[in-house]
Specification:
Blueprint (H helix, E strand, L loop, with lengths): L4 E6 L5 E2 L15 E6 L31 E2 L4 H7 L3 E2 L3 E6 L5 H14 L4 E5 L4 H10 L7 E5 L3 H11 L3 E5 L16 H18 L2 E6 L12 H5 L2 E6 L6 E9 L7 E7 L2 E4 L3 H7 L9 E8 L2 E13 L7 E4 L3 H15 L6 E7 L11 H12 L8 E3 L2 E2 L5 E2 L4 H10 L4 E5 L12 E5 L2 H11 L2
Helix pairs in contact: 8-9, 9-11
């Protein structure tokens, strides 16, 4: 009986060792080694030799760009994230939680591309052809140039791509694909790295746009080595609660467009639908009855300003240590804002629980939301209602000063378009003189913003 061999591989950088190590000597990551079982036979690795680049260096000015460099998906929100459409020969990674809608959006995209006359190969590594067809019928997709190929072997996939010569390839998913050249099971670090590397060479050498679907871990990170995200051209995350109808598609990396761009979708019976006015979506979830602890902010997601509601709840704690709970806001950021409120404003929250929630299911990461969070907490603690026609934006420093935010004009124009009458903004921000449709209140310190907020409360 053959002896089973194993090796330990760093899931961050792919470093291999015979035994477990607490810290990776290559990238310095702690606790990143996972064990992989190796097969007894060593298979030859001859596939990589087929992709040797024999082209000679060219001058930048002599490189010709084709007329059809980008191909639109005919899905407006998806095109926004991609920077105007797919770039030919690019490799796109789409990741998200189970049941969030990854396969749905890719199959819808395949249907739209087929309507434009493109030949599409959909490689299903987790479902049979009949199961994919059932989803396609639900999405009303019945195109002649859409090929479904249920396969998990990378060498067979490569052969079919060469025979069909499609314009687009979808791999669902990369964790289920395996190569004969790697002596480990599918989904291992080595297999994911090797299969993605082969797909990248196929996409670049044959100018075939490839979309790869990836799984995520319980921590929300893409399963597999970190090098997977470095190899692809675009990384897109599908966010949202699968039990709610709205989804957020977020671009985390894009070599051909803006990063941190978002697209808003609504899950319906016939697939995902684009939300043309996300501000109306987020603001419609506001309660019609004004209550303390609510503030409207304008956050900037890529090139799109989004208006969302920040809600805070402050109450006496029944625990020895007060609770700090956030949804859509970084917890450490809330701790910093609460420390500034206590030290610079004199608001004692040491014996009170603080809950902060962002309505609409979106995550707010940029610092311009600091002032809105602080005012939501302060008004709830003092039982003051903020004027529902006021928007708030500004970054809070540790000494209580309000720092300027970027793209202030674009944010204010979005607030005007949504019908808001007043804006509390940092004093250091310059605004156009012809902006007269909204009242501007400039503040230098957090205490000034709270005073201005209280004066406008009802």
């Amino acid at each position: 009986m053959a002896k089973t061999k194993s090796k330990w591989v760093c899931k961050e950088c792919g470093y291999e060792t015979a035994g477990y190590l607490g810290k990776c000597p290559e990238c310095g990551s702690w606790g990143s080694f996972i064990e992989e079982i190796q097969f007894s036979q060593k298979l030859p690795n001859a596939v990589a030799n087929e992709f040797i680049n024999t082209e000679k260096p060219e001058l930048l000015k002599d490189i010709h760009i084709g007329e059809e460099l980008r191909v639109s998906t005919n899905i407006s929100e998806f095109d926004r994230i991609l920077g105007g459409g797919f770039v030919q020969g690019s490799l796109v990674l789409l990741a998200g939680d189970p049941g969030i809608g990854k396969s749905t959006i890719t199959l819808q995209t395949c249907g739209e591309l087929c309507k434009s006359g493109k030949k599409v190969l959909y490689i299903s590594a987790e479902e049979s052809a009949s199961q994919v067809k059932l989803r396609a019928e639900r999405l009303n997709i019945a195109e002649d140039n859409l090929y479904i190929y249920p396969q998990t072997n990378m060498e067979n996939i490569k052969t079919q791509i060469e025979e069909l010569s499609p314009d687009f390839v979808v791999v669902d998913s990369i964790q289920a694909i395996y190569s004969n050249n790697v002596p480990s099971s599918a989904g291992s670090v080595s297999q994911i790295r090797e299969c993605c590397n082969l797909l990248m060479h196929i996409a670049k050498s044959k100018n075939i746009t490839t979309v790869v679907i990836g799984h995520v871990t319980k921590d929300g990170n893409i399963a597999g080595p970190k090098v997977l995200e470095h190899m692809v051209d675009t990384v897109i995350y599908f966010e949202g609660d699968k039990y709610k109808s709205y989804r957020i598609l977020r671009s985390m990396k894009n070599r051909f467009g803006n990063t941190a761009e978002v697209g808003i979708f609504e899950m319906a019976a016939d697939g995902l639908r684009c939300v043309s006015n996300p501000n109306e979506l987020f603001l419609n979830e506001r309660s019609q009855v004004a209550a303390p602890g609510s503030a409207i902010i304008v956050t900037n997601e890529g090139t799109r300003p989004l208006m969302v509601e920040i809600q805070a709840l402050v109450g006496m704690t029944s625990y020895p240590s007060p609770r700090r709970v956030t949804n859509g806001v970084d917890l450490s950021r809330l701790h910093q804002i609460l420390a500034v409120l206590e030290k610079r404003v004199g608001l004692n929250l040491s014996k009170q629980d603080v809950y902060v929630n962002v309505m609409g299911g979106i995550d707010v990461d940029e610092p311009s939301a600091d002032l809105g969070i602080a005012l939501a907490v302060a008004t709830c603690a003092r039982d003051v209602v903020v004027d529902s026609q006021t928007v708030i934006m500004g970054e809070i420093g540790l000494s209580g000063e309000i720092h300027p935010v970027n793209n202030i004009e674009r944010r204010l124009n979005e607030a005007i378009a949504s019908g808001f009458k007043k804006a509390i903004i940092p004093d250091a921000n310059n605004i156009p003189k012809d902006l007269k449709k909204i009242e501007i209140v400039k503040v230098k310190r957090l205490i000034d913003a709270i005073a201005a907020c209280v004066s406008t409360g009802k």
